Amino acid sequence: MTPPVIASQPPTASPAPHPLPAEPTRRHSSALHHPPAHHEKAGVLPSLQSLLYLIVIAIFIITFCVQPFRIPSESMESTLLVGDFLLVNKQSAAPDGSGTLLPAAAIHRGDVIVFHDPVDATLHLVKRVIGIPGDHLRLRDGRVYINGRALAEPYAVYRPSPPDNFRDNFPRLQSADPEIDSRWWIRMRSLIDNGELIIPTGNYFVLGDNRNDSEDSRYWGFVPRNAIVGKPLLIYFSLQQHDSDGSFPQNAVAAPPGHHPSSRIDAVVDFARWSRVLQIVH
């Protein structure tokens, strides 16, 4: 039996589609396409917020953690040179009760510290701690003796200079020196026992590493604990220094003999002491 055939219905005719409206003719233009104004505002606001966060973080770091300083004098050569830029760790030397995030760190003999000048508190000085509270200190022929023993000082530099009995043999009270702070001279007389200076509680005796060219505790006295700002962490940059005649000073890392900057690149290379960048201070 032949299977039945199902006849198909003819397709229903669909209505003709309406023609689309013709696009208006666009003129070619060199003008840039600008997004809507609200998109611009949405992009600017996050950028401003990020900038604000960076500013807040920078202020926090400078206020509580580290602070930049520049070395202006030769008193700490050759540890620190004129033109060195330091990052000083303020947390490492914060005094007790200062409200800092980290606990106060002890100041040790041999530490390099940055502190407020005891004579002019608006200035900052950098020196090395030589005597700590309770030490009996004296200098003989330029050598430092702590509690009767000579102190090993590989960092100290003794450059030729005119004799200075007060500086090289300290303490010495035979005659006043015009370079010595008068208040320190008076106080020092009460702290000397058997030719040794006794360092009182809460105070530190500091010297520059360049012993014959440094005004330090020998001339203006102790550094109080609460005057210490921090300890140098590293040298983050160092500018090359030139003498008045344009030549390199003795401590400079000079270019080879006969070398003259012949291009801008050479000038940039001679501009800084690149070997000192990111050098740890100790």
Written account of the structure:
This protein is α+β, with helices and mostly antiparallel strands and about 280 residues long. The chain contains five helices and 13 strands. It has helices spanning about 35-65, 165-170, 180-190, 215-220, 265-270, and strands at about 65-70, 85-90, 110-115, 125-130, 135-140, 145, 150, 190-195, 195-200, 205, 225, 230-240, 280. The strands form two sheets. Strands 1, 2, 3, 4, 10, 11, 12 and 13 form an eight-stranded antiparallel beta sheet that branches. It has a five-stranded antiparallel beta sheet with strand order 7-6-5-9-8, with no helix packed on it. It starts with about 35 loop residues before the first helix and ends with a strand. Residues about 1-15, about 25-35 and about 245-255 have low confidence and may be disordered.
N- to C-terminal separation?
110 Å
Main β-sheet, in a few words? 8 strands, antiparallel
Count of discrete structural domains: 1
Shape: globular
Radius of gyration: 36 Å
Which class best fits the helix and strand makeup? alpha+beta
Q: According to CATH, what is the topology?
A: Umud Fragment, subunit A
CATH class: Mainly Beta
CATH architecture group name: Ribbon
Percent of residues in beta strands: 15-25%
Low-confidence stretches: 1-14, 23-35, 244-257
CATH H level: which superfamily? Answer: Umud Fragment, subunit A
Helix content: 10-25%
Number of helices: 5
Total number of strands: 13
